[in-house]
Structures are given as C-alpha cells and as structure tokens.
C-alpha cells in the first residue's frame, strides 16, 4: 500500500480503534499463568502505542508530505540512473546554446490529488543529470486568461527541505493557496511555480551538488528541470525571468544555485537557511571536509570569478537563517545584493508559509516578465 494513500491510513485508523477497544473488552478475561497474563496485557499496550504513533505519523505525513514513498522513509529509494562527471558547469561538455537548442520534449502532466486540480505532476527523465523523478507545476490564474494568451511568464523553482517532497510546497506551505489571490489582485507578479523532487538518494541531502558517481543534483535542478519548463510552457530561459526559493535545506540549495548560476537564476529566497552544508546532518557534501569547506556559501561567493549579478533574500530567526544572511551580506559586492530579514516564528512550515506574501512581493521586483 502507498505510504500516503487512503487504504493504509484507513487501515491504521481501524487498527487504532481495535487497539483501544480490545483491552477494554478482554483485560479482565485474560486467563492462564501470571506470566502469560502479564505478557498478553503488555502486548495489548504495546499494540495500542504502536498504532497511535503510526496514526499520528501517517496523518502528519499526509498533511505535510515529508515522505512520498516507503523508499523515501527508509532511505532505500534512488532516482539516479547515472552520475557521470559533468564538469564545472554541469552540462557534460555541451554548450549552453546546445542544451537550449535541443529538440523540445513534450511531457504528460496529471492533476495531483488533493491540490485543487491546478497543481500537476510529470515524471521527468533528466537527460543531462541522469536523474529521473517527479516535478510538480502550478500555473497562475492568468496563464489561461485569453488576455495573456500570447504572454510568457516568469518562473520560480521551489525546493523543499529534507525530508520533503515537491508536494510539500503545495500541501504543507500551501504556496498556491497563499499566492493565487495575491496574483489575481496584482500584489504579486503571476509566476509559474515548479517544485522538483529533491530527495534523490533515499533520505540523504544532496546539497544540490553534482557529486560524480553519486548524483548530479545541481544539473537536475538548474538544467533538466529548467529545460522541461521551457519546453512545455510559455516561459523564457533567460536568467532574469527565473527565481528559486527554498526552506531549510532547500533554502541553502536555492541560494547556492543562484550564486553558482547567475546565467540561470536572477534571484533566490532562503527561508531559515544556512551557509555551512554541515548544518544538515544527512548532507552528502558535508561527509567530506574539503567539499564541506568549498560548498559553504561564503566560500562560493568569495570564489566567484566576478561578483554574480543575483539578489538574495535570506530570512529567519537570529540563529536560524538571519545571521547566515548578514554574513553573506558582509561579503557581497555589487552587483550581488543580499537582504537579511529577521523574523519571529519557528523552523516550521507554518512560519515559512506566512512569509510567502512578503518574499514573493520581493521576487516580483527582482524577477522580470519575459
């Protein structure tokens, strides 16, 4: 049964009800030696505790979508079909013009259950990255408006934390529900929202890095997903029309992708992010001390040949994103711009969801219409 499906949830509800009723019905009727009676009653209590924990976990996971499958939960899922060394630009020896000019690949999209019909999902076979995984797309209300039939739209790529899935942005943060009315009344620019799978190797954090022999997560996000969007929707591949946003581990990724690829993104939003990838316990990058050092956002900003022309919004509580933002701001040189915003609220989906009107209002001033 699917980890997020109704049959499993209904089964656990039924087992939880049985676990409550069973002791009430048979507790005093248990027969046999003392050791048997104790063992039987203890088993009933353990069963009740186990079903209660399972019910709470499944309920939260259905609501927040931390894990999409059993493979994600147990760390056995892999969405990597190949992981060759793609070089420093992540293009595997190809020129950016070659990737952009490659034949378009139409994708089949299906509505995602429970998200109102406008959020759709496709399975993308990343030809550059060697990653094969799901990508969710939400189109703004203007996209189907006849007045906009000849218009192209800007894009914001949404990266979840670890654990988390593309659905987390829509079911957990409710990004589309928060932003749709703001787009309708003109307070926020009409963006296409794209949220790709981030958990590519079980429940490990790839740090959005290309790690030859393991995973090419950077190229998945910044090359294959972008190409899929421009192939299938009215968008542009110009960096000025693309932004990227993330929370927690995804926040680190969003800022990192913008710093490394100003030719692909013009702005990034980091919600409760960090500069040091070692702050994520499951980080693959942090397993190697040298990789951890070179993938620190401060090191990446210093190592850039010229200051990247990108704008970064970094927000969070003082020790949960804000100080990381002030550290980067102190290093940034024009045309790099870093805004550090101190906010109240915890490291949770509700806090990040409440920041969406402000952060997407800011993105509206940074990411341009094609």
Explain this structure to me?
This protein is α/β, with parallel strands linked by helices and 370 residues long. The chain is 40% helix and 14% strand. It has helices spanning 6-26, 34-64, 70-74, 96-101, 166-172, 175-184, 217-232, 249-260, 289-294, 297-303, 322-331, 349-354, 356-366, and strands at 110-111, 119-125, 132-138, 155-159, 192-196, 210-211, 215-216, 242-247, 267-271, 311-316, 337-342. The chain has a 9-stranded mixed β-sheet, sandwiched between helices. Strands 6-7 form a two-stranded antiparallel ribbon. Strand 1 and strand 2 (119-125) form a beta hairpin. It is globular and about 80 Å long. The mean pLDDT is 91.
In short:
Helix content is 40%, strand content 14%. The chain is an alpha/beta fold.
**Largest sheet, spatial ordering of strands:** 1-2-3-5-4-8-9-10-11
Figure out the total of helices. Answer: 13
Q: In percent, how much strand structure appears in the residues?
A: 5-15%
Structural class: alpha/beta
Helix percentage: 40-55%
Largest sheet data: 9 strands, mixed
Q: What series of H and E elements makes up the topology?
A: HHHHEEEEHHEEEHEHEHHEHEHH
Radius of gyration in whole Å, from Cα?
A: 23 Å
Average pLDDT across residues? Answer: 91
How would the global form be characterised? globular
Termini separation:
44 Å
Instruction: Please count the beta strands (DSSP E, at least 2 residues each).
Output: 11
Detail the poorly predicted runs: none
